[in-house]
Write the structure tokens for this entry.
Amino acid sequence: MKELDQIKTRLAKVSASEFIELEAFVAQLGQRRSVEVALEHRSKATSACLRCGDADIARWGRSKAGTQRFKCRSCKATFGATNNTPFFRLRNRQLWARYLGLMGQHVPLWRLQKDHGLPLSIPTLHRWRHRFLSTLTVEPVQPLAGMIEADEKFFRTSFKGSRGWKRKNPPQIRRSRRRGNAEVRALGDQQVPTLTAVDRSGAIHQARLSDMKHDTIVSTMSPWVESDSIICSDGNDAYAKVARATGCEHIKAKVKNCNTTQGNTAGLSIGRIDAYHRDVENLVNRRCMGVSTRYLMNYFGWARRITQHRPFGGDLLAEMLAA
Ligand SMILES: [Zn+2]
């Protein structure tokens, strides 16, 4: 206690510029401890081997960064608190919460370096982004219910960042290009179809489709939907099939300036999904200036979390490390 009092007395005497430096130091320390605490909780809750499930595990020292490690007496596997989390073998844990906090908005990677002073290389910042985003692509367990809107959207197939052309192994038979539109609209290998469905509670389900066949749409969307709901779409027959398969009603959306749609006296539209698709498109095509198709669903996950106003930063970190 006496030591703490001495620190306080000394702190009261520091200059303004020193105070600013200390403030940043203490904030960083707090973030580092929050990771430590979350990892310690996870360690405490570890009761079985992550590989074989056997409960006969022993404490096995601590990692260099200080987390408890375990060894399974049955299969001899060793593991720690970051196994099966996006933080596995990720260094600089004092920066995790801050990085996750900055993901609440879209900040270009180079700005994370230049404006926010994250002392990491662009490839590392990129790897972190996709490690973290990949956890946001998991579809919610809660099914959609009530008034459901569904629609598909195409994105241009992209191999952004691919070294294929330089390595004489191009992923597509065409010239490499910096940016540009698909040469033919809606052509199989140049456009990627995606499917999104939302309900009035704000729940969002989304998936990348292998093709636009009705069977594909039915098998993808049916598990998302609770029976006795109403599915509203632009009128694609695939959604009528989804409705039949799930015991729902299908209604064709009201189109702008057109009141002639039969059976839609309530004037239902797919405005929510249109707005959401505009947000995703804005993130993918404008703010990120196109993203590689292999990462497309990561950006969908990101857009969903932003749209639903769910927290980033320390809260997201705690979610990811939840035991
Ligand atoms: Zn084991």
Notes: The two ends are 34 Å apart (CA to CA). The CA atoms of residues 102 and 255 lie 38 Å apart. Residues 49, 51-52, 54, 72, 74-75, 77 surround zinc ion (CB under 6 Å). The longest strand covers residues 147-156.
